[in-house]
Amino acid sequence: MNDLMQSLPEAAQAYLDGRRLDEVECIVSDLPGIARGKAVPASKFAKQDYFHLPDSIFFQTITGDWGEAAGEEGFIERDMILRPDMSTATAAPWTGDWTLQVIHDAFDRKEAPIPYAPRNVLKRVVDLYHKQGWDPVVAPEMEFYLVAKNTDPAQTIQPMMGRSGRPAAARQAYSMTAVDEFGPVIDDIYDFAEAQGFEIDGITQEGGAGQLEINLRHGDPVKLADEVFYFKRLIREAALRHDCFATFMAKPIAEEPGSAMHIHHSVIDMETGTNLFSGPQGGETDAFFHFIGGLQNYLPAATAILAPYVNSYRRYVRDHAAPINLAWGRDNRTTGIRIPLSGPEARRVENRLAGMDCNPYLGIAASLACGYLGLMEEKRAGPSFKGDAYEDEAELPRVMGEALDLFEEAEALHQVLHPDFARVYSIIKRTEYEEFLQVISPWEREHLLLNV
């Protein structure tokens, strides 16, 4: 047990200082981004190098059904080997005892990474960058809603009651008063994040009723994806303490803006330590334009990953703080690809397409994959867009089926992410889409029942 304690990151050691560790949650992200795994006594965890879970956890749809994704040998549910990454060990401060969470990596019996495990997909893409002498850096932004408890799916989602006793107000972007309405929840988010050793760059009120945004500091893509994975859980737990729900749906309330996971990218030359997007005199480099070109060329095919559910496509609406095309512009939030104001060292490219409902490992992997293909193929971006991009043509898929068609045709993207991942992902998402098409909506009953 002493060896275990000494291997923990500093924040986890501080959390347990003077206390007895009771339990360890051994977890892995499935395709939707849900934590799967098992909880074991700390004494047992200290003695085990790995544990087993069936690979079928990656063949489940969001509804819990199964996609026919096992492959040529059929659905036999092989055990995977799950090995802990102790650098991810962190507190679970909402539990009743002293518990840690540890993210595990998934391997087959030959010790090869499971290709459709989301964390492995992202590691694969990062490794491709490293082989070129490049170090990708990302900074995700997380938007979400705090809403009233919704226990009946037939009922529309309502804003939560704020501290004032009134429902959360919309159209109050960046209002500190609006942030204060959720003070107790935000206090717990900060406390949980501190216990877990996470650094929040800031929390702001967004445009929707009860919509907040958390920004994270830039860093290693896998580490940041781990943090988003953890953050979604801790935010939900903080909300439940205050009799409300936190939701990461892309479009939970029809009249309100959707929730995005904007991803900022830069690439560092590993030999010189300089930003690949900036030249010696501070100007924009060919690599900068090639990266943007890769996003423009491949993001339509990657949309099925960045917008993984039928609800995701309700977010792409003109004039509702979400992109409708792949225009790029400097300091222009109407474009799908934005270049924020910055000096040469911090020059970066922001992908505004990803929804907060995407799996953070897969969303970051897909976005980096598009940029990587641009760098490798050296396809230069078109001219920057000036003005309101909502006045330009829509270019993004409008429904899940169309997005899957584009994804399934994108062989170059499959090779970067891994062909087996692309196969499994496509089958699972087709299964979900077909399940959705069996549901008759209130709109259909209202307007078609007696009128057609």
Mind explaining what this structure looks like?
- The protein is an alpha+beta fold and 452 residues long.
- Helix content is 33%, strand content 18%.
- Strands 7, 8, 9, 10, 11, 12, 13 and 14 form an 8-stranded mixed β-sheet that branches. Strands 1, 2, 3, 4, 5 and 6 form a 6-stranded mixed β-sheet that branches.
- The longest helix has 21 residues, at 286-306.
- 46% of the residues are buried.
- The mean pLDDT is 91.
- Residues 118-452 form the GS catalytic domain.
- Keywords: Ligase, Magnesium.
- Belongs to the glutamine synthetase family.
Brief summary of the model shown:
This protein has 452 residues and is α+β, with helices and mostly antiparallel strands. The chain is built from 13 helices and 14 strands.
State the helical fraction. Answer: 25-40%
Instruction: Report the structural category.
Output: alpha+beta
**H/E series:** HHEEHEEEEHEHHEEHEEHEEEHHHHH
Largest sheet: 8 strands, mixed
Overall mean pLDDT score?
A: 91
Strand percentage: 15-25%
Q: What is the count of DSSP helices, taking H or I runs of 4+ residues?
A: 13
Shape call: globular
What is the number of E strands? 14
Low-confidence stretches: none
**What is the rounded distance between the termini?**
70 Å
* Gyration radius over CA: 22 Å
